[in-house]
Every structure is written in structure tokens, then in C-alpha cells.
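Example record

The entry below shows one chain as it appears in the dataset: sequence first, then C-alpha cells.
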Amino acid sequence: MVKLKMTKNRKWEEVAELQRLCEELGGFSLKLNWDTLRDRKENDKQDLFMYMDGKLIAFLGVYDFGGKIELCGMVHPDYRRQGHFTSLLLQTLTNNKLKDYEEILLNTPAASDSGVQFLKSMPCSYAFSEYQMKYDSSTDFLTVNQHGSGDAVSLRKASGSMADRETLIRLDVEGFNLRPEDAARLHDETAEEHNSSYDIIELDGIPTGKIRVSRHQKESWIYGFAILAPYRGQGIGGYALRQVIDRERKLGHDIWLEVALDNPSARKLYENAGFVMQEVQDYYKVEPFQQ
């Protein structure tokens, strides 16, 4: 009888290889949030790994985003339909720590038939979908001065000061409907990521928005783009996005972002700026399992 081993030791090269294999055979892209995984501290133990005969056969990533937890994982194609992913999932969902979170989401690529069917068999319900979009200069028709505010808009790197921290937290609260305590926790976690940085968007020196960019291996991912409500509709977001695109292109990076399907205004801005849909990620809401 083959002995299974579950471990919380992180061997990211094995995870990347398993991801490559699953994506290559399945024709989809898994959302494993590598910007977060790469910055795990040594004492972080939330992610789960399953080995058989010294070979990684399953992985479950657990991501804390303020008041919600996102879960995404994979199983080696040769070891599916044997209950391995269910074992990892149950180990996570029965953790008492999850009761403190407002929402638990399971994520699967919409193009993954096995992932979608698995989640449909679980006690969870479809919540929403996200587009993963990639910049294509041939479809970039964004103009930035149509509202007359372009020359007054500037970006500056967040300083790490208490004032900037409070501004960034406020933008997450207003822009993404987060509770203040969840926005604070999310900010403090993302601020520690080595390859990630925040830009504060200013109009005539007044903070009006923010944007975060995570960079790795010639890819730049845009996250958390928000403008304060009183300043929306003035072209500020478009001008800031134009500056970020031009900056990241000079680095020679591919530029990616994610946008919820139910956010048509953001989607329209990104499409005008040259972002083209590549993948769709589906999210399902689940309650913690009772032990």
C-alpha cells in the first residue's frame, strides 16, 4: 500500500512544475497568486502539499485577502478522482480559524471542466467571475485628456507613511466595500511583498486614487485600482492607467490585470486601453465544514 504524506513545507519549483503540467494538459490557466506565494514567510503554514513516493501530487493554496479567504489548487492528472484534493480541502475548511472570515471562496478556471464539475459537487454556490486581461498595444485606443484633467494628474510611489497607509486603506474601503479592519490587514500584507508596489494617484497634489503593480519574470500585474467617488468621471483613472502602461512597457514587461465581470465601467476602461480577455476565473462561495 502506497503511503501518502501531507506537508506544509514549501517547494515552489515543484508547485510550478505541477501547475505547468495541469495547464498544458487542460488548456487553461490556474490562478495561484504567485506574487503572494513567493512572499510567504518561513513560518506561514496555510498552504497544503500532498506527496506520494516523494512526488508532489496535489497542492492547495490558501490566500487571505482581508475579510475573505480564497482557495485554489490542483491535482496531478494521474492521481485525480482518488479523493486527494477533497482531503486537502476538508483539512482547510475544518480549520477553526476560518470562522473569523466573512467569506470563503473556491476558485477554478472556467475552462477547467474537472474543476467546475468538482465544485458543483461541493456544498457551495457560484458567486462571480473575473476576467484576466492582457495588454495588446494594437487595440489600445485610450485617450487621456478628454476631461481636461490629464495635466494635473500624477503618480507617486507610496511612502510607507501613516498618512499614505490611511489613504490606501480608505481607497480599499470605498472602492471595494471592505470593512476598515479587513482593508488594513490586506494593506499590511501586500505592503510586505517584495516585487509589489503602490502608486498613489494625485490630482493637483491631492490623493484621489491608487494602483498596485506586482512584477515578476517580465510580467506586470495591476491590482487594486481605485478612485475616490468624488473624483470619478473626470478622466483621472484613464490618465493614471496610461502612465502605468507606458512605464511597464518601458521595462519590457507583459501587462496583465483582473476585473470582475459585474464591473462594466472598469471593463470598458481596460478594453479601451488595449486589454484583451485571456482567461475567465469562476468563484464559488462555501461555508466552513463542521467537524
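Notes for this example: DSSP finds eight helices and twelve strands in the chain. The domain at 137-273 is CATH 3.40.630.30 (Aminopeptidase).
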